[in-house]
Every structure is written in structure tokens, then in C-alpha cells.
């Protein structure tokens, strides 16, 4: 059974189609990354799955439960880690966990709290107020809170947005531990490295729908080939070079102060300048080619 099944899902906010005919299936036991630029519809998709928003059209099933009619039962079996920190700052670390354990009808609340404190590496801070924690500790607690009832499915909405690289790596480690237990995970992100590092499969999303999906290596082979050649030069030369390369049928994307000739191994002799920096093609190449957005 698929953990998540979406078919033809549409959600409008006024004239804007945040989700526009979305088809998505997530098998049990995998980590699927929803990768897309800001405004692609990732967070709206998460809100639809948790019952915080109601689709205008389409069918949604989570863990066998139809949404929105059976969203309460679905929520009892899923863990949700929101993008925004909504921890209760007026109580202690352990109280944040205990409240959620009771809401989810966990039989042994004390054991669940201890397990999650260990997962978040916060056992020695259990009686501290939340507002005494660092940003990284709060994010770890937010993740642990979503796991307090040992859910079958975990939804992570931009779990490391705004965090510095060291804290981001800490969160990735915790998510990796969760993956190793076979928990089904749906993670939305606009960070290329996050998708590559965590996801078994990546679904590239833009304008409210999935436009390509597969294992990172397969997406790279399909859309970007083996090699990318980056050329650094003044803007006028780059513009001229881009026009000539595209006239040869090759794909070119912006790369900061350079242009990237994607699939450069297919270029005829003399098309790629000798001063180009040649590297292996990446998921970032795929992301920019498919969405037209610069990667982060």
C-alpha cells in the first residue's frame, strides 16, 4: 500500500493555483524529497496532507485514509514537523514532548519523552525552558516532538530552512537515523544538497505539479548527462557563447558569474572553450534546467 496517494489535486488561493493537478504516490518505507523553488506548491501540498487546507479538486489518501473526511485518523498515524517553530516557550522541553504524547494517546508518556529526548540529544536540558535553547536545539526538539508517537509517516516541511550549515548537518543526521528505521518520509526542500543527501527519490516540483521524478542519479543521467562545463567570462562573451552553444543543440543554464554547458560530453570539437571548467553533472543542473530557478 502506498503511504500517500494524490491524484489530480488542485488548490487555489484566489486566482493563484498553488497546487495545479498534482499526482503523487509515495510507497511505504522510502524517503521522497519534494524539491522545488519557493512558491512551487510544496508547503501547500503538506498542508493538504495534514488537513490544514482542503483541496478544491482531486483525490487524497494518506495511510489508507481518505482526506479530508478521515483526516483525524490519518493525523494520528503521521508525524508533522512544520517549517515554522511553533514550540510552546512557556513550558519545559520535556513538557513540550509530554503534551504531544498525550494528544496522540501514547500509552507510556514517560518512556516516549525519554526516547525523544535521547533522539534529540536533549536529555540534560529536559527541565529547561524552550526559550533557553539555541536555534539548533529548538529545531531538534521540533523534530523529536513530531516523532513522539512513533508515526508510520513523517512529513518534514523545509526542516532546515534558515539554519546555519553546522546545525543543518545535525538535523540531517537525525533524519538519517529515522530513515534507517524504515519510516516513510516526505520532505519538502529547496536545498539541492538536502535532497541529494536524504532522499531515495526526488520529485521536482514547480508551478503546483511534479514535472520529473526519480533517483537523483537517474534524474541527472536523464536531464543533464555526464558532464557540465562552466565558463567564466565577461557578460558579453558569455551571451555570445551561450547563443552559439544553444545553436548546436546543447543546454545552457546560468551559474552565478558563469554559464554552465550541460551535457558537454555531447559537444562537437571546438564548441566548448578550452578554458571551461569541466565537472560531473549534478542535481543542481537538473533543478535549474527544469525550474528555471537558481539553486540554493
CATH superfamily of the largest domain: P-loop containing nucleotide triphosphate hydrolases
Assign an overall shape: globular
Are there runs of 5+ residues with pLDDT below 50, and where? none
Major sheet characteristics: 6 strands, mixed
What fraction strand?
25-35%
Q: Order of strands side by side in the largest beta sheet?
A: 6-7-8-3-9-10
- Given the structure, what is the number of helices? 10
Please report the total strand number as a whole number: 14
Give descriptors for this structure.
296 residues; alpha/beta; Alpha-Beta Plaits; 2 domains; six-stranded mixed β-sheet; four-stranded antiparallel β-sheet
How is this structure best summarized?
34% of the residues lie in helices and 29% in strands. It has 296 residues and is of the alpha/beta class.
Describe it.
The protein is α/β, with parallel strands linked by helices and 296 residues long. It has 2 domains: 2-220, 3-Layer(aba) Sandwich (Rossmann fold), CATH 3.40.50.300; 225-280, Alpha-Beta Plaits (2-Layer Sandwich), CATH 3.30.70. 34% of the residues lie in helices and 29% in strands. The chain is built from 10 helices and 14 strands. The chain has helices spanning 42-49, 71-76, 93-103, 109-119, 135-146, 165-180, 192-198, 216-223, 235-247, 283-291, and strands at residues 2-13, 16-27, 31-35, 57-62, 65-67, 78-81, 153-157, 184-189, 201-206, 209-214, 227-232, 251-255, 258-262, 277-280. The strands form 3 sheets. The chain has a 6-stranded mixed β-sheet, with helices on both faces. Strand 4 and strand 5 form a beta hairpin.
